[in-house]
């Protein structure tokens, strides 16, 4: 009988319209490194939020046992008191404070609410030694790199007497040396008796470090592999992650694909703040009537690629050429891009897509007011007519066009954003995560729209983290990994395993064999 | 009744302010035994508050973009000083001096708009600096002294009244005619809007409500103008303010620029990604505010008939208060020209009424502060409740 530090039994968590977790079971043995893998949206982060108390007891079904006792966490504080500490992908450090202050943030070394600086720095120094960081504890956090910041987070966790350390994509932003250091540290912590849960997309790391691996898919536990009994190769893990048939979640369509409409050549983009290449020599094209998918994991550079093309709204030192119908075009600003017939539907509709405090019709017409105005004066009748047309075409469910965008559901909001860009009469439509966070019914409607737009002859580019979506929609798929387009798949080649291989950077070795 | 309640709940912002204005006006009407609403005092009310209303119109645009302008009080003084130096010291003809003054206002807007929009310094900082800079320049220009008097022609800006082309005796007929025409235009606009709404299946109010709303509005306008007409008629300042209300309401509701301003304030990132040059929008809104502040400065100087170093002190706060009382949001994206005017009138009626019943400046400040706090607090409370 194994000694479990954590047991999560039959966890079910529903959001309006979506079952994010469906009877998930997770058992973690004391002192092991347990990896949690699965596609984006499989439910890994949701599960960890249930565990850490972000979603309080009562908002989910099922039971959590920690050290043999059932737990009812109301907030993160309570789970931290028991020694469960989660380190999120976006680090929660305050950049202007010193390393030591960050380590004890919210947990200050103090007497009568007066800081004890001596203790703060000396204890911080000890913790830094444990994680192998040699910088002075007085260094401001913004002066050290991401890899070291990650170590500070771990030191912070250690300061709370952590028993179970959860790391969400800890190496996503790290280079190889830093990643190796971090993984080594996890091994050392394991020897000190600290249990870790590692969420990662980098399957090579998962495969090499884990004692056991739990695979989640579509909110369900698929299996737990014990690496002592069975060797978990990357292939083995991928099989578990994707082993699912594509249900008929996608409307049928007959693609009539024409000539190349849009072509991107030798596209290079640098990070806006750091001197780091985000997009490395990307080349791709889209034909008229064609739906092209871009697959890739978080941080692969898909959104960055799209936004840098759309009026250079991301990045700096952008080089490369854009061609439309064989002619070189310029799209250095958003309005130029719109004039060239490029439309970009952002992945984050609330931040980049909509004015939530304005009504539906004004949101729809905003990007192309010329179409409804004369001498800069808006023809409101025409506006209402056009907005009404799109509202019916996309089946936006709302009592009136005067409804504020912020009052609508995610699916309806997404339809407004889509309407807004259809209203610009584009030739090239870039859709970034077009169905993120919306329910199944609305997804189907949006897929139908995308198909119709392609049938009208548009060149459509769909970026999605959901593999089935890319596979179900696209005629052709480009796969990105770490800023590079690592593969192009079409027809029979485009299956989940191939795409996953290119996505995780495990490359085309297998493909070479197949060919 | 049900419709009325839900209508009120949905538009609590707009109607709340108007009810507050009516309440405050009635309160002073009782407290002053009717003096506050007699024809002489209503005329004074307009003359005293005209420049604040002009400032409020410019300010509401700035606040809708999510910015603020603390410098307008100093700009009022500075432009008054420029006008004084031009007209009094250098005998520049009035109309040329007026155009030059407005141009100076535009330049001030260019200066501040440049730092805010293109360099990215927060407007609070840039205009706080502007507040000091232009007050300093005013003191320098005037050498710390007042300049007076202005040429008579310059008095048109504040003291003059619309001439009565019909030559009425004891009553200003032309004013009444104008108010009659305006009433007809309002009725026409309301019903043509309704026609569109019906045609396109938009939400409409019940007919009786529209008629009731129009009846109250028309009664208020015509009664107000009738009171003015029994005195000296419509003051020029009121014509300027009404002109600005019409122009800016049209710009904000019916033009591409208006849309851009609301979109920039509502969600700047989304506006940028919609192809709107938000920097340019913010820049021009500040240029516009500079010109309107200059216009207010001219009205102010004309009313005092002198250019003084202390002119317009703290006026920016009155203008900002008017805009927020009128329902604008600090976060941007929300606000109307009419709201700002109503807010300005709330402030104006309070100033005027409290002076009439001889409340000292100490308590006047206190009460205005409390009204601002509660007006905006009421708004925030409503929003939080709606959010739940």
From TrEMBL, chain A:
Classification via InterPro entries: AAA+_ATPase (IPR003593), ABC_carbohydrate_import_ATPase (IPR050107), ABC_transporter-like_ATP-bd (IPR003439), ABC_transporter-like_CS (IPR017871), L-arabinose_ABC_transporter (IPR053466), P-loop_NTPase (IPR027417)
Protein keywords: ATP-binding, Cell membrane, Membrane, Nucleotide-binding, Repeat, Sugar transport, Translocase, Transport
Residue intervals of the ABC transporter domain: 6-243, 264-507
GO molecular function: ATP binding; ATP hydrolysis activity
Gene3D superfamilies recorded: P-loop containing nucleotide triphosphate hydrolases
Main location: membrane
Pfam families xref list: ABC_tran
Annotated localization: Cell membrane
One cellular component term from this protein's GO annotations in UniProt: plasma membrane
Membrane topology category: Peripheral membrane protein
PANTHER family: CARBOHYDRATE TRANSPORT ATP-BINDING PROTEIN MG119-RELATED, XYLOSE IMPORT ATP-BINDING PROTEIN XYLG
Annotated protein name in UniProt: Multiple monosaccharide ABC transporter ATP-binding protein
UniProtKB/TrEMBL annotation, chain B:
Membrane protein topology class: Multi-pass membrane protein
Transmembrane segments: 12-31, 43-63, 70-88, 94-117, 124-142, 171-192, 204-226, 232-251, 281-300, 320-346
Keyword field contains Membrane: yes
Chief place where the protein resides: membrane
Protein name in UniProt: Xylose transport system permease protein XylH
One family name in Pfam for this protein: BPD_transp_2
InterPro entries with a match to the protein in the record: ABC_transp_permease
Upper classification of the organism: Bacteria, Bacillati, Bacillota, Bacilli, Bacillales
NCBIfam families: GguB (NF040906)
A GO molecular function held by the record: transmembrane transporter activity
Source domain of life: Bacteria
Keywords: Cell inner membrane, Cell membrane, Membrane, Sugar transport, Transmembrane, Transmembrane helix, Transport
GO CC, any one term: plasma membrane
UniProt-annotated location(s): Cell membrane
Function: Part of the binding-protein-dependent transport system for D-xylose. Probably responsible for the translocation of the substrate across the membrane.
